[in-house]
Write a structure and sequence with these properties.
The structure is a homotetramer. Chain A is of the alpha+beta class. In chain A, about 40% of the residues lie in helices and about 20% in strands. Chain A contains four helices and four strands. In chain A, strands 2-1-4-3 form a four-stranded antiparallel β-sheet. In chain A, helix 1 crosses helix 4. The N and C termini of chain A lie far apart (about 35 Å). At the B-C interface, strand 1 and helix 1 of B face strand 1 and helix 1 of C.
């Protein structure tokens, strides 16, 4: 089998996730940076909310990328591995809480990463994005 | 005078510009990468549409940054300067058509950059973003 | 609300902070690298004093950027987070003491970072910069 | 002879140059980014004036560094060499007008680079910095 059928997240899907994340963050009163990447870790959609930390642009993207790559929520790597893996990937693999893979019918089609709040706030916002596109939630 | 009053683009404004750009690109049938940056060139909002070229992620951001920095639409630099300026800024300053500054009441509060179509298509989409937020259009 | 009113630090303000930091460092007999960045972390003013460590160029800028992004003095992040956050931001987010946000009327308009002395000396010099521009001092 | 006596620019000298450049730029009504580097190309002093292009942070530093390295004003390299040299130095060597070496008693002790205006405006501002520290002016 030289090729196979696959599922892709559309920009409509990515923007729906973004909008749901923004709505949740506004409801929580916590401004956030929110990133959605595809299954190859390339950016699909992004927003930095008023008052969010601008350095969280980088960490939100790293969280989305890490979740899409590992197909797991971030923060589940063994603690003794996280610095080594970050260094070996130029900082792209992070274990900071707030990244979730986008899993649809068992296939990982991307990741959502959120940063600027506490790790728990970041994760709550990211999960709102999963719900908006009907993806599995491995953190539920 | 140690400080001065100024205007900032909100994330609501950035997302309104993004949505208007996407709508225009869909109407044209040309998928695009669209970036909105703040007055210091830091990313505020982004989307890559289905079928858009993924390397245009970089050029769309460079166009938005360049327009925000120069306070002019891109493609207006003298041709003999454009490579030197790109090299002296690590590629961040580009003269590719498709970037516009966001000017509100005479102040530059950011930039919009669009890439993946022809230069003219990119510019047309970027201008739709300006209209959505009531900014001046120096290319009209 | 597509835009909002805001405050910016002028170069006169940034240079006034720089001069006050230099004066304090000279009075202490501790040469320093001193950086002032805007609200998006872009450099506004900088000086490296005679005898200061040249690698502190980088750390002073990182401290200023970190304080501007988090809106808090540096060194207040949880210890178990600091390496992960540094790695996820390409080293731009540092928890080294000596960075302070510039808060004017409740709004963060930039940051000051100082490096080349001990953390306490760095902070003392940075605070002199805040006083010069009448900004709040969260470390007082 | 294993070592030799040399002259160094102090931070007082670098700040005097910076202040003279700012004064000239204000008199011209052209906001500028102004960088002063030492004989090794490491940043000594910097300011970005209100309204200056933020991407000129990079080019001003490149101009100062290039002038300090070549011990010549920038823009004197053969045109057919400038892109090759820029590429071979990661963009640090630029031939853009606006950089001058700081030559005192025949020794190059640093460089001044100015960017955000036209090349001629940039050079005029840089020369004001040389005058303030009594350095030779090879462009006179």
């Amino acid at each position: 089998m030289l090729t196979r059928r696959s599922t892709k997240l559309t920009h409509a899907g990515a923007l729906a996730a973004l909008a749901a994340c923004v709505a949740r963050a506004e409801a929580m009163g916590v401004p956030q940076c929110i990133a959605v990447v595809d299954a190859s870790g390339v950016l699909l959609a992004f927003v930095r909310m008023d008052g969010a930390r601008f350095l969280s642009n980088e960490s939100a993207i790293a969280k989305a990328t890490s979740a899409a790559s590992t197909r797991m929520p971030t923060s589940r790597l063994p603690v003794d591995m996280e610095v080594k893996l970050a260094l070996a990937t130029g900082g792209r693999l992070t274990n900071l809480k707030g990244g979730v893979p986008i899993i649809v019918e068992g296939e990982c089609i991307g990741g959502i990463g959120v940063g600027s709040g506490t790790g728990s706030q970041d994760l709550e916002v990211a999960r709102a994005g999963l719900a908006a596109i009907g993806a599995e939630d491995q953190t539920a």
